[in-house]
């Protein structure tokens, strides 16, 4: 299932699935979140989807912030030196902003990826 429409992407849930990896290509301004699945919620029906990705191509800007709850600190992470997500817990899709939040793989800090501009695409395998 390939999705190019932000409204359709808002009907996906990732809370019960793992992030396999996050890849940022600064040269072509592309970020890919590869996941082991998703739930498609439509008309009150949940359809489980297989492995796939969310991709933002030709983004304008990206900001990655790590929040450490223990010492109440936050740090900015660079596009070429960031911690991988383990779980994608929240995704906010606005007109020109994608805000992806979840727990980091190594430190379990709360990570926030704010991505402005670009085209958002999602593609997931059918589970059947």
Would you mind describing this structure in some detail?
With 128 residues, the chain is mainly β. It has one helix at residues 6-9; strands at 2-3, 12-13, 19-25, 30-35, 38-42, 45-57, 61-68, 73-77, 85-93, 97-104, 110-116, 119-126. It has one domain (2-126). The chain has 1 helix and 12 strands; from the N terminus they run E-H-E-E-E-E-E-E-E-E-E-E-E. It is globular.
Low-confidence parts: none
Q: Which structural class is indicated by helix and strand composition?
A: mainly beta
Radius of gyration: 14 Å
Mean of residue pLDDT?
A: 91
Order of helices and strands: EHEEEEEEEEEEE
Provide the β-strand percentage band. Answer: over 45%
Oligomer: single chain
Number of domains: 1
Distance between the termini: 12 Å
Enumerate how many helices there are, as a single number. Answer: 1
What general outline do the C-alpha atoms trace?
globular
Total beta strand runs: 12
Query: Biggest β-sheet: count, sense, barrel?
Result: 7 strands, antiparallel
Helix content: under 10%
């Amino acid at each position: 299932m390939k999705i190019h429409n932000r409204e359709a992407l808002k009907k996906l849930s990732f809370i019960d699935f793992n992030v396999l990896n996050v890849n940022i290509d600064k040269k072509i301004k592309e970020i890919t979140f590869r996941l082991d699945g998703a739930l498609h919620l439509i008309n009150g029906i949940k359809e489980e989807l297989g492995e796939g990705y969310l991709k933002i191509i030709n983004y304008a800007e990206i900001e990655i912030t790590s929040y450490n709850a223990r010492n109440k600190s936050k740090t900015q992470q660079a596009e070429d030196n960031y911690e991988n997500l383990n779980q994608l817990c929240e995704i906010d899709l606005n007109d020109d902003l994608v805000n992806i939040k979840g727990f980091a793989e190594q430190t379990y800090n709360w990570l926030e990826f704010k991505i402005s501009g670009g085209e958002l695409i999602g593609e997931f395998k059918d589970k059947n």
